[in-house]
Amino acid sequence: MLNPIAFSLGPIPVHWYGIILGTGALVGLLLAIREGKRFGIVPDFFMDLLLVGVPSAIVGARIYYVAFQWDQYKNNLLDVFKIWNGGIAIYGALIGAIIGAVIYTRRKGYNFWRIADICAPSLIAGQMIGRWGNFMNQEAHGGPVAESFLRNTLHLPNFIVNQMYIQGEYYHPTFLYESLWNLAGLLFLFWLRRRPGLRAGELFAAYFAWYSVGRFFVEGVRTDSLSFAGPDWLASLLRTLWSPMNSFGWGAMEPGTNIRVSQLLAVLLVIGATVFVIYRRRKGLAVIRYADPIVSAKAAKRENGSAEDGAAAATPAERAIDAAPAREDTAT
User: Residue ranges of region Disordered (predicted)?
Assistant: First the structure.
C-alpha cells in the first residue's frame, strides 16, 4: 500500500490527495490560459475564475452529498463541515463551479458559454488527474475482483494491482477507468474545438455528454454510490443500458436502493446536452462560432465611452476638419 501522506510540515500532514487535486487544478488553469490567449483574454481572468470556482465547487460538492445522505447528518450537523472525512460528489462540484462561473463571467461582462467552452478541456483534464487522488486513498473503487483479472486480463502494473488490494480483497480500479476515459475525452475536445462548424456552447455540451457517458458505466461497479428508491421501470432501464459491460467482466454492484443518482444524472445530462445543441441550431440561436472573437461587454462599453468622450472634448475646428470631405493633393 502506498503511503497517502506525501510529507509533513511539522505536525501537519500533507496528503497526496491534496497535491494531486492541486496539480489537476493547475493543469486546467494552464490549458485555459493558453486557449484564452487566442482570444485576447488576459491570464488574470482565469486565475480569478479559479479562485471563485474552487470554493464554489467544494461547497456544491458537499451540499450535493449531504442532501442525499441527510439521515446520516441530520442529528450531527457539525459533521456536515468535516469534508476531510470524505463525502463530496463530482456532479455537485460541477454544479457549484458553474454557479460561481456564471456570476463571475457576468460581472466581467463575458458571455458564459464562450468562457465555458474555453474551460471545458480544463475541467476534464482536472478530473482525469484528480482521480489518482482516489487511487492514493484507496477509495471510490469498484466491487471485488480476482487478482488474475487485474494482472492477466487488464495487464495492470504492480503498483496499481497492489494498491487495489484493500482489507484482504482486490477491487475494480474505477479511478483508472474514469481517468483513461477522461484522457480520451480531452483529446476529443482538443480535436472538436478546431472544427470550423462548432458553435458557442457546444464544446461545453460535448464535455458534459462525454464525461457523463463514461461516468454512467463506471458508476455501475462503484461500491459507494449515492442511491435512492425509485420506480422499478426506471431501475430496469438503467440496468439494461449498463448491461453491455457484463461482457467485459465488470459485474454490476447492487446499490442499497435501486437507483444510482450519478447514473440517472448522467443519462439526463447526455439527453440535455443533445437537446441543447439541436434546439439552438434549429431555432437559429447558435449564430456565434467557437472561433469568433470574444469581447467583454464592459470593455466594449468603456471603449465606446472613451471614444464619445474624445469626440466631445474636440474643439469646433477639429470637428469641422474631421467632418470635411477628403481632398487629394495635386502636384504642380
Answer: 299-332
CA dihedral 236, 173, 19, 186 (to 10 degrees): -70
Ligand-binding annotation for 131, yes or no, is yes
Q: What is the pLDDT of residues 261-318, one digit of tens each?
A: 999 999 999 999 999 999 999 999 999 999 999 998 876 666 666 555 555 555 554 4
Number of domains in the chain: 1
**CA dist., res. 235 & res. 256, Å (int):** 12
Is residue 228 a part of any domain in this protein? yes
Closest of 211, 214, 2, 56 to residue 121, by C-alpha: 211
Q: Go through the chain and tell me how many residues it has.
A: 332
Share of the chain above pLDDT 70, in %: 88
- Structural domain contains residue 3: no
CB distance 130 to 24 below 8 Å = yes
pTM for the whole thing? Answer: 0.86
| Residue 321 domain-assigned (yes or no) | no
Range of the domain at 192: 13-300
